[in-house]
Design goal:
179 residues; mainly beta; four-stranded antiparallel sheet; 2 helices
Length: 179
């Protein structure tokens, strides 16, 4: 499971439930002491959730890892209107494949492409939000196996991306990169 604040009063939980709401795998909202499922159909196993300036990424696993994008406005309208979105129809698929961590730089998705054995790359996927539509642009590699040992975690805040990786001697090293 994964948890992130949408705003100061609203938690988003990618998992099996929130509070007394336990409707199976999905994205849950927890606000004012109450939890409910906000997005269904995110796969059989929970994945990540991350919030950008205008976009929210949530994912899960069925036959492969998938990351879906929703505009913040779309999710906030569903919260206010007490409606449940369906991932496969309301979400925009922006990544499918190996992923063990995600982060957001402004609105761009950053993924750690790793299958728990082999580190492939840290990749940035350009994202554009227009109304409720989220579209995927070019993908670029930020870190590759040739430039580091193994990346173990990502963290982002606004234009800053933190990457934790190990070198050949398994020592932790941090890399900060500005957009």
């Amino acid at each position: 499971y994964d948890v992130v604040y949408l705003d100061a009063d609203t938690l988003l939980i990618n998992g099996l439930g929130a509070g007394t709401a336990d409707d199976g795998q999905g994205l849950y909202v927890y606000k004012n002491g109450q939890g409910r499922r906000l997005v269904s159909d995110l796969g059989s196993f929970s994945g990540f959730v991350a919030v950008g300036q205008d976009v929210v990424f949530a994912g899960g696993y069925s036959t492969q890892n998938e990351v879906l994008a929703f505009s913040k406005a779309e999710l906030q309208a569903a919260i206010t209107g007490n409606t449940t979105l369906v991932g496969s129809t309301d979400g925009d698929l922006v990544y499918a494949g190996n992923v063990t961590d995600i982060a957001v730089l402004d609105n761009d998705l950053v993924i750690l492409d790793d299958d728990f054995v082999n580190f492939n790359a840290v990749r940035r996927i350009a994202i554009t939000v227009s109304g409720d539509a989220v579209s995927k642009g070019a993908t670029s590699d930020i870190v590759t196996p040739a430039s580091t040992g193994k990346v173990t975690a990502l963290s982002a805040s606004g234009p800053w991306l933190g990457i934790r990786f190990t070198d050949g001697s398994s020592d932790d090293i941090a890399l900060l990169r500005m957009k």
